[in-house]
Write a structure and sequence with these properties.
208 residues
Length: 208
């Protein structure tokens, strides 16, 4: 059986589709409304990006924000560096005179009192024990207990950079307190020094 086709209807149907009228077209019901509207209007639909819509609704000077952020960061870094410098200076001043149960600061000399290769004996940590303070060339001030670690004789400083024990000819390196010759087997105990307001203090005896 042959079905007659009305040319007028067929042509009209083709024109409707080409012209953008999709009513009655079998695929029109499955298209997205915005897409269908774009086809009907002769141009494809363009959706705005959600980020662009957000920027339009809430405008903000992003370039200025970046400049402010960098400026604030620079101020933070400079301020932090200055604070660290000041804190280090305070610690250095306080650290000259440490305090604690095993620390006893006793003045032993004035700054500049000893010329190079000069030395002096002082009481530390009390009147029953003594230390020796030496101003060594190219090293500066050092201090040790003046009690020889052999048989407790008193050592003296010689200009050749050595501490000498006259009892049994023991020799110690004045720069380190270590044994160089003779019967002693242990280095001289070290005395830690601190300087505050132009005064040199003995602060702690370190046995070795």
């Amino acid at each position: 059986m042959v079905q007659e086709v009305n040319p007028q209807n067929h042509g009209s149907e083709g024109r409707n589709v080409q012209g953008g009228d999709l009513r009655g077209h079998p695929a029109a019901s499955s298209l997205d409304p915005e897409v269908a509207q774009g086809i009907a209007g002769g141009a494809p639909a363009q959706r705005k990006d959600s980020n662009e819509e957000w920027r339009e609704e809430f405008p903000y000077p992003w370039d200025e924000d970046e400049i402010v952020t960098r400026r604030d960061m620079l101020r933070f870094l400079l301020g932090g560096s200055g604070a660290l410098f000041l804190a280090t200076g305070v610690l250095a001043i306080i650290g000259n005179l440490p305090a604690g149960p095993n620390v006893k600061a006793m003045p032993v000399a004035k700054v500049g009192e000893l010329a190079e290769n000069q030395w002096k004996v002082f009481d530390f940590p009390d009147q029953y024990a003594q230390g020796i303070l030496i101003n060594l060339p190219k090293k500066g001030l050092v201090a040790y207990s003046d009690v020889c670690t052999h048989l407790s004789c008193a050592v003296v400083y010689r200009d050749d950079g050595k501490l000498y024990c006259p009892c049994h000819d023991g020799l110690f390196d004045a720069a380190t307190g270590n044994v160089m010759a003779g019967p002693p087997t242990r280095p001289l105990p070290l005395i830690l020094l601190a300087i505050h307001d132009g005064i040199i203090y003995a602060v702690k005896l370190v046995p070795r």
